Amino acid sequence: MHPADRERVDAIKDWLEEEPSRGLFRSLLRALRELLDPALRRDLIAYCARALRPWPTTLREVQEPFFLDAWMDAPDEVMTLIQAIAAHEIGVDDDALTRLAALPELRGLRRLELYWNGVGLAGVQALVHSPHLHGLEHLGLRYNRIDARCVRAIADAPNLRRLRHLDLGENALGPASVRALGDSGDLPALRSLVISEVREGLTSARALSRSRLSARLERLELVNARLGDRGAAALVASSRWRALRHLDLSANQIGSPGLAALLRGGLPTLERFELGENQVGPEGLRALARPGALPRLRVLNLAQSPITEIGARLLSEPATLPALRHLDVSSCGLEEPALARLRRARPECAVEG
Q1: Is the pTM of this model over 0.90?
Q2: Residue 61 β-bridge partners
Q3: Residue 52's CB: how many other CB atoms inside 10 A?
Q4: What is the pLDDT of residues 282-325, one digit of tens each?
């Protein structure tokens, strides 16, 4: 064995005994690629594949510019160990994504995030038709050139049947995109959806409520969609959202009537509720204080809401949201004495304010 290879082999085995981290993973990949003996490299890749199985996908990640600059022009089997790529704000366009989707060496990829780039229809089509990315579970395309045609391509993609999380936020989508996702029969594993900044919020909320997704989504982020009270009511009008655990409706102009409508519609499994930057006041908190309201809720964000001291008193009642463990009432205009009373009344709950 070449002396340089022996040093790299020893380093790789030592690293695999250490605490897992992204930095350690990248060092391991570099060392594997620098091995001089091709047969030794193949054996060590197989060895590492077994040793890395307990590592979470998020730690088996490469980031820009490490991956795109140094690896795509010279792919090899070391890349089969990669399970996550995060390439944010580096100009990934349709051509770059097409090249990436064509790499058989990325057949182990589970997580792909391409935020703040230039991906459009051609890139999405290459992605969803790739025979190598059928194991993808998490896809993030926030802040790109995603339109209704892109969403339809994703919704109709037979190669994305394992996809659990889809982030299309900040792409100015509308009801047609929501309907395409909601009616899709090709995304059976989808459980988490981010579609913030959606246009025509009321119509989009109705489409979501009537869709197949409403029965199986566990997480929904519908931020800054200008829902208002009517949109909030529409969201639960046709469905009870039986699996939903995390709901983010921040910055949607929702007031107390909208919150009351959401609670009447039924959110029995909700554990995290993000309602910051809305207009929920004391009347909305009275609805929250009713017995049986959101029995599993552990996290509630009301930041920048006009809850007043009346609302703070309602939240202080032990019977209100008995499972609550984290409450954000920052920038709600509450004075320190009101916050202190709230903390004393809910010692089991971390109160931000």
Answers
A1: yes
A2: 84
A3: 17
A4: 999 999 989 889 999 999 999 999 999 999 999 998 889 999 99
